[in-house]
Amino acid sequence: MHVPLGELVDRLSTVTQRIFHLEKEIRDGVDLPDEEIGRRARLIRDLNAERVALKNAITAFSGEGFLDVKVAHRSEIK
Fold first, then answer.
1. Exposed, middle or buried by CB within 10 Å (0-12, 13-18, 19+), for 65?
2. What residue segments make up the domains of the chain, in order of their start?
């Protein structure tokens, strides 16, 4: 199935924003319960896998840039 480039870019932007918001309170030093930090870490891992796939789809579509390859990275393990 062919997805338009604009849609891929929009999806990448949305995923990147979600990751940023999940990380923000952790970066800011907000005292979060360990369970919440763990929940966010798992969600960030999954979102990062989606982000890498979108970046690679954009690279393949445009023919420019390079593929992002994670070797034995936790985001690749389900």
1. exposed
2. 5-76
Q: CA angle 64-70-17, nearest 5°? A: 70
Does the pTM exceed 0.85?
no
Q: Which helix H or strand E contains 57, and what residues bound it?
A: helix 34-62
Cα 14 to Cα 18, 71, 73: the distances in Å are 6, 25, 22
* pLDDT tens digits, one per residue of 18-35: 999 999 998 999 999 999
CB 4 within 8 A of CB 54: no
d(CA 36, CA 41): 8
